Amino acid sequence: MAMLGKRRPRRERSGVSGLQGRQAPQSAPGRQGGADDTAGVIIERLAHDGRGLAHDAAGKALFVEGALPGERVEVAVHRTRKRFDEAHLREVLEASPERAEPPCPHYARCGGCDLQHLEVAAQRRHKQAVLRDLLARQGVEVPDEMALLAGASDGYRRRARLGVKVDAEGGVHLGFRARHSHRLVDIEQCTILVPELGALLAPLHQQVASLSAPRQVGHLELLDSDQGPVLVVRQLKPHGEDRGRWEAFAAGHALHLAWLVGRESPRLEWLTPAPALSCRVPSAADASAVGELTLGFAPGDFLQANAEVNRQMVTTALQWLTDLEGTPLLDLFAGVGNFSLPLASAGASVTAVEGSPAMVERLADNAARHGARLDAGARVPRVESRQADLAQAGAVARLLDEVGPEVVVLDPPREGAEPAVLALAAARVPRVLYVACDPATLARDAARLVHGGYRVTRAAVADMFVHTSHLESMLLFELPGEGQRRQGASPDG
Question: In which residue ranges is the amino acid composition biased (Basic residues) (predicted)?
């Protein structure tokens, strides 16, 4: 996931990626001369990472931050490589009609939102094109109609990490990383944070500056929950006086407050009464007695950053995976039950597997709590939680043998799920729903499934992180004939 306050893993960028936008006219001037003579660059299209792409007369690629397709721009090259150069804008000479005024005052320096200069509708078209292109490069065909799951363009992010640094003069800096740098940009306003968290930025800066030992603060985690905002202080070494200051801050801002204490093996310690944190996800539409499902979680558990888009993803999974009554379903990388419980509410018999023992325990608690509170006639979520190392193909193969699923749901981290996909292709599970936070690893894994006989029958892009080039996506894979088999099945199966 693209996370505020965290540098994305650095990846070597090739010179031939990307597509969004119109091709520049053949007669348009290319880049002339060397790095100091770059006026009049014509941007051809957007690369996958959202940078503008141009070529010089010799065909060498130039990636330009902040430039849009069709624009003529003056740039400055800041990095020269063998196959391509990297540059930033000096001036937009001819602007694209899709260029927008960035809503955030920190846009030019903060590394969090790299597409605020592009209209939101165009951002989303770009993301759909990127997914389609990456899949096509791997020989994976997708339906002509690709769903778009999207919500608000601001005030959507419910979790963030703020870096903290004290400089040589004792000045306190609190915010997110600058572009291409470990340097912090002081942030007192963020347009994409939910308002309850955004309102804490300026007070937190003052709070850290008032501490006796601000150098003992590593970072701050902000999290929104059904119970209100949560603050977790990464405290490198306990400090009694500062503990009292944090407790007073929490009382003054109606916060749930904890600190993660220690350098080597940090422990979570609540400084306010420990809350039973939760968030809500949809249940199956026909399980009216259940209503919304409540998922308990703890700081450090995986939680999708955009609650509104996550709800749409869960609803989409319920719409795509029909006829689940009594169906054995295996949910891999299940977290605390984001998909497991809603799919169980639709009648599936779910085996939910997660690598983190703590999250497995909370998933089991979530399923047990819903099962205990439902009315007698309601559909009870049937979820068995297990812990397993899903990076091992053998572990996945054993799960497939034991569960015998007719449906598998995958929601892996950025590195994807190649070992699991290899086991799935061999087992030929009828339906596989892959939820991805990295389109490149999704394309790689999708190719494995397609080569194993699957085809993509549904596709969606989820704009989880508006104003960034990061995209989430969902693909439904089915073996040929599976759709016809289910459509022709009797109500009794």
Answer: 1-11
Beta 172-177 vs 159-166: how paired, if at all? antiparallel
> How many Cβ atoms from other residues are within 10 Å of residue 27's Cβ?
6
C-alpha distances (whole Å) from 315 to each of 42, 283, 413, 455 are 42, 8, 21, 22
* pLDDT at residue number 486: 54
Average pLDDT over residues 125-151: 96
The pTM of this model reads 0.87
| Section 230-246 average pLDDT | 96
Count, residues in the chain = 493
CATH hierarchy code of domain 133-150+277-487: 3.40.50.150
CA distance 36 to 411: 46
Contact by Cβ (8 Å): 461, 295? no
Find tokens 């709800």 and name the residue: 311
Catalytic residue among 287, 330, 336, 437: 437
Annotated active-site residue 437? The verdict is: yes
pLDDT in tens, 27-76: 334 444 344 444 589 999 999 999 999 998 889 999 999 999 999 999 99
Domain 159-225+228-270 in the same topology as domain 1-99: yes
Domain ranges of the chain: 1-99, 133-150+277-487, 159-225+228-270
Say if residue 170's pLDDT is above 50. Answer: yes
Q: Which residues does the annotation place in the binding site for S-adenosyl-L-methionine?
A: 304, 333, 338, 354, 389, 411
Cβ neighbours of residue 348 closer than 8 Å, sequence gap 6 or more: 321, 324, 325, 326, 327, 328, 329, 382, 407
Please give the CATH architecture assigned to the domain spanning 1-99. Beta Barrel (2.40)
- Provide the pairing of β-strand 61-65 with 45-46: unpaired
| The amino acid at 54 | A
Q: Indicate whether 417 pLDDT > 80.
A: yes
**Binding-site residue positions for [4Fe-4S] cluster:** 104, 110, 113, 190
Residue where the block lists tokens 């003052």: 206
Annotated binding site: 104, 110, 113, 190, 304, 333, 338, 354, 389, 411
Question: In CATH, what is the architecture of 159-225+228-270?
Answer: Beta Barrel (2.40)
pLDDT at 39: 57
